[in-house]
């Protein structure tokens, strides 16, 4: 114990808050911990007079900073290279523009359009698109686990996908343009979710059958909350592979897919 | 999107046999933007049978034809087809589980009662099902506090300590209402259970099979001991010298029962606690009423908070009908042709993700499989892995490879491969297994199941639009 006390904690966010109770001498420690286990909310922080304790304030600021960082940082170029992504960019030129002009984050320039056309030919059945979205940290945390899992799942259904696109300053709507450029049957976009104080590493998958620019949002199927504490990325990948298979089978996505599945059940 | 399944519970107890039919509603609790999460959202009892005395042929064997006839007749009365029953459980409890043909009776009946009705036995499971059936689990969940249920039946008292859905510990004592049987008119003692005979001998009371009682008071010293031991069992009062003598298999060992404040009573004797004092104490031909009355005056009521239970004499059967089956996680991977699977033992592996080594894990599986070799033949097992919360893809591959290598002999024998996990990874792990297994090799890979070593599982055919598999975790202990 003595030694532990002398160690330096270089990053306060290494503490698992679910296992930490700051209330001194709780009446029912087990009961309190059990309540905490049901929620990521910051329960049992205790106080100093009417204020939070220093530790709680620091942790709150650290988590808030992590959330902001994940919005304002970029996905490591090494990772993009390692994954052999085709790297392109939307019409946005900076993070500020990305945040203030959502419309520009949904379209490519002519130049980038050509780049995709050159590299992806023969209208693939499945096109994966990876986008930084509002959290680059989410992509860095999950992409290396989810893509092999999707590919392995597709193998189970006798399908495959190759040549994935990476989009910088990416909004979901850009997948529609990818659909039109590549003529893919199904486009699956993996994109960083707006970070919160609970996690900055949450990713979503937006998937659509033959998406077109200006199509109604109801044609997208969404799988959200993909991160280590939510849906594990490997399991999400397996589930997404099944969704891709179903969309190719029914030639539908979004609410249309749900409707046809329900019909078949009854 | 909702779907329902029909479940049957049958309890063949020391003194009574009964049946209930429940309708379980399965519902996807996740939003449309998330991976499905199908849970049992509602449990309704739609039919309760009459309670009959357990038919015995000669005191030592269970009269199977009579039980089968009872079940068939009750299905008819309920207007339910045997084919419509998708899941359920038969439990053989108390002293009845010690009868010669007990094991054969439940196995046969589980087939006759429906396609996926599981056979179970053992005092631990009985206590758990009774506690859940009595509503103790639900109460504990609401109060976020642990609870102990005492199911006092004809031959045994089964205790289970629950904290919500979680089982903390179980215990069982040879204390029940029918340990001494007395003719209500002639007051002649017709039967005394072996352990009570010893007790009578030690207490030096002149009562034996065949003797005629002058008054119910003659039995008071015996009833006193039984009540003291029940008090002790939940951590109240000074330890009675007969405590150990009356233990069936074990008392609470994993928890200190004196720390648990909430108590519920179920079983036939729980009903006897409520009845008025004036009637003939031997109206049921046994000591149930005497035991119930004495229990009502026990110190348990001063030291603990006794909560009213939802079910008393029906607690176990309701538990068997509504609480014996859970559903797997909703993202899983399986070959339908191999289902249902019955009586599969568990090979448990605690994985340390950071130290995962394919070769070592494969060897570990191979060695542990040897435990399940009977007469030179390897029995099929379910490989149950824990500690795999959000693994990397490489770790997942490593596990799948290790299973392929470690279970090589099972695969050569062409038995379906069964893999289960606690954490939500079964679909991905299933896809990995598919990659490493021979082409079209049958397998089942499911998650969100909690089992212990020594348990057995049954896995049924898919329900809720093929999204989940019903799973029954049980013990199969005949003694």
TrEMBL record, chain A:
Keywords: Bacterial microcompartment, Cobalamin, Cobalt, Lyase. Its EC number is 4.3.1.7. The gene is eutC. Pfam families: EutC. One of its GO terms (molecular function) is ethanolamine ammonia-lyase activity. InterPro entries: EutC, EutC_C, EutC_N. Pathway: Amine and polyamine degradation; ethanolamine degradation. Adenosylcob(III)alamin binds at residues 172, 193. It catalyses: ethanolamine = acetaldehyde + NH4(+). Catalyzes the deamination of various vicinal amino-alcohols to oxo compounds. Allows this organism to utilize ethanolamine as the sole source of nitrogen and carbon in the presence of external vitamin B12. Its main location: other. The keyword Lyase applies. Belongs to the EutC family. Binds between the large and small subunits. It is found in: Bacterial microcompartment. This is Ethanolamine ammonia-lyase small subunit. Its cofactor is adenosylcob(III)alamin. It comes from Sporolactobacillus spathodeae. The basic unit is a heterodimer which dimerizes to form tetramers. The heterotetramers trimerize; 6 large subunits form a core ring with 6 small subunits projecting outwards.
TrEMBL record, chain B:
Coiled coil: none annotated. InterPro entries: ATPase_NBD (IPR043129), EutA (IPR009377), FtsA/MreB (IPR050696). It comes from the Bacteria. This is Ethanolamine utilization protein EutA. It comes from Sporolactobacillus spathodeae.
